[in-house]
Amino acid sequence: MTIATCLPPKSPDLLLSKYGGPVPRYTSYPTAPHFDGAVDAALYREWLGQLPADRTVSLYFHIPFCDTLCWFCGCQTKITKRYEPVAAYLDRLDREIAMVREAAGGARLPVAHIHWGGGSPTLLVPDDIGRLARMIDRDFARTEDCEFAVEIDPRDIGPATVDALADAGVTRASLGLQDADPAIQHAINRVQPLAETAALVEELRIAGVRSLNLDLMYGLPHQTTAHVLATIDQALRMEPDRIALFGYAHVPWMRPHQRMIPEAALPGPSERLAQAQAAAAALMDAGFVPIGFDHFARPDDPMARALARGALRRNFQGYTTDGAETLIGIGASAIGRLPQGYVQNDAATGRYLAAIDDGAFATARGHALSGDDRLMGAAIERLLCDFEVDLPALAHAHGKPADAFTDACARLAPMIMDGLVLVQAGRLIVSDSGRPFVRRIAACFDAYLGTPAPAAAATDRAPRHSVAV
């Protein structure tokens, strides 16, 4: 077995200066900025028509509405104080669901995973939560062990909504918490009393929603390592099954409302890294298994079990146990993946509504996958999930020559010399010091990184991303 020679480990500050810059999160490959208009509604319909009637699929529903704007938010959403736009949007979801079934040949495709995201899905009134669940069951067939997850804003949910979610068959709830400190909550315009979140956790469990996730964040304005650890302490008292620990992505060029957060109040790179590492240590001390670069799960959780058997996956919701090859995205801006490639609905709610009213899919762009895309995407996914990848075995599995990764390995050379990556007989292994930079390591396999996105071709600008740590 050959082990690549590397220099002694570098200091964290030096590594941050070299590898801590902007890089994609790789919830797809290629990433969404490199989708283009060549994949349109007609091609999407064609791809749906090629799905076998017994193909198990996953469903993602995007609910792009909130009643208040959180300044840290990077999601596709709009603020509304009236329910009429939400009700009208639900009518279009009804039509799009039916269109998918019709395009797929009329069969009720089996569904193993359902995810409602946003925005804030719990902005739906209880009756409409039940209505959307019935729409799904009308045109799809949930498998016996179907996971049904919903993202929840604890500030906009009451007992009737909790009951409606349980009656709809929700099996997993993801609650946003971010940080428990009131001053930081004010700084991100999300005031959320801790007692309110804890009470909701108990209500969900009593109602029968047994699997609970909490979403925390580091890198927020005025946040310190002590704040992060105090929030983790409070989160652990709620006994969640999983905790997601996201680094705040400050991207005001994409989300102008983030300009409400003064950049001078944000922790610097070294403090962000310290926050992430201290949080990870605290969660592991509490018995959680680290999952990739931003998730933690109890050892008996399905995600920890998937990691142990090499079946952990990554999609647009982040780390997942969902092994389905087909993910159907429904709603404005929703992204799906079919065996042939990616599709994305128009992000503008008005244009989405108009397309559905015209009886057409709202597909605005996508990407037909090439053999090289599949190969590089698989390498990126395995690195982000397992922190290692067997390159010769992967090339062979994809019918590619042994030198398929030559360019990627050349880009990896400085990281090997800096001790972030080891090479053993063609197997790449991310070292402990390299784990915080795994997205940067994975980016060595991205043939599109640094090239202009289709929408920005006229300006010859490459897409901009959030920092790596």
TrEMBL record:
Pathway the protein contributes to: Porphyrin-containing compound metabolism; protoporphyrin-IX biosynthesis; protoporphyrinogen-IX from coproporphyrinogen-III (AdoMet route): step 1/1
Subcellular location: Cytoplasm
InterPro entries xrefs: Coprogen_oxidase_HemN, Coproporphyrinogen-III_oxidase, Elp3/MiaA/NifB-like_rSAM, rSAM, rSAM_horseshoe, rSAM_sf
The keyword S-adenosyl-L-methionine is annotated on this UniProt entry: yes
Cofactor binding mode and count: Binds 1 [4Fe-4S] cluster. The cluster is coordinated with 3 cysteines and an exchangeable S-adenosyl-L-methionine.
Binding site residues for S-adenosyl-L-methionine 2: 72-74, 178, 190, 215, 249
Record PROSITE patterns: RADICAL_SAM (PS51918)
Domain Radical SAM core: 51-283
Presence of the UniProt keyword Cytoplasm in the record: yes
EC numbers: 1.3.98.3
Short name of one Pfam family: Radical_SAM
SMART domains given in the database record: Elp3 (SM00729)
Entry GO terms, CC: cytoplasm
Residues engaged in binding S-adenosyl-L-methionine 1: 60, 118, 151, 335
Binding site for [4Fe-4S] cluster: 66, 70, 73
Cofactor: [4Fe-4S] cluster
MF (Gene Ontology): 4 iron, 4 sulfur cluster binding; coproporphyrinogen dehydrogenase activity; coproporphyrinogen oxidase activity; metal ion binding
SUPFAM superfamilies noted in UniProt: Radical SAM enzymes
Sequence similarity: Belongs to the anaerobic coproporphyrinogen-III oxidase family.
Subunit structure: Monomer.
PANTHER family for this protein: COPROPORPHYRINIGEN III OXIDASE, OXYGEN-INDEPENDENT COPROPORPHYRINOGEN III OXIDASE
Protein name (Swiss-Prot/TrEMBL): Coproporphyrinogen-III oxidase
Species: Marivibrio halodurans
